[in-house]
Amino acid sequence: MLCPLWISISIVVIADSKGGAFFRQTRVGKDGKHFRLWKFRTMRPMSESAGQLTVGANDMRITNAGKTLRKFKLDELPQLFNVLIGDMSLVGPRPEVPKYVAMYTPEQRRVLSIRPGITDHASLLYFEENELLAQSNDPEKTYITEIMPAKLALNLEYLNSNSFRGDITIILRTVQRMFS
């Protein structure tokens, strides 16, 4: 059902800048297992070497097509493949890169006890995370000391209260937020 959309997005990404349509990145999943997360490529090739955090819509590494894909979170669609192969679920704590997981406290590592998801409460609350980081003099420090702990606290709350009904609510709120 999504094939026509995926093909269209792939063509736009490839036509907009050099490189392939997809971006793969190592993330940490359930029980600390590493996996490859799939996204549509929204940045110029080799941009990750300049840092793993993006800082606002005006980050020069983001392509023109990437700005639109990120605005509507369409770059996340290939993660449905991660769901199909069992690395992720639709709802759950967003998977993090190993660099930041290494900084988790033992309590925060509890988020690794369940499969990561495409969306969660933290994704909704920090929908404009890149813009927050763009306002910081030291985006990485802001992420590590403020944003990451706040998101992990929300994820730990989710661990204690997750339910099918709650997951449906998160999915509906995510779809609503994407188009608002």
Features:
single chain, 180 residues, mainly alpha, two-stranded antiparallel sheet, two-stranded parallel ribbon, 45% helix, 11% strand, globular
The largest beta-sheet arranges its strands as 1-2
Would you tell me the structural class of the helices and strands?
A: mainly alpha
The rounded Rg comes to 16 Å
Which term fits the overall shape?
A: globular
Helical stretch count? 8
Count of beta strands = 4
How many angstroms separate the termini?
23 Å
Strand content: 5-15%
| Unreliable stretches covering 5 or more consecutive residues | none
Q: SSE string, helix = H, strand = E?
A: HEEHHEHEHHHH
Count of individual domains? 1
> Can you give the helix content as a percent range?
40-55%
Mean pLDDT: 93
Report on the biggest sheet: 2 strands, antiparallel
Strand-helix topology:
Blueprint: H1 3-16, E1 22-28, E2 34-40, H2 64-71, H3 79-84, E3 89-91, H4 98-101, E4 117-119, H5 121-125, H6 129-134, H7 139-161, H8 164-178
Parallel strand pairs: 3-4
Antiparallel strand pairs: 1-2
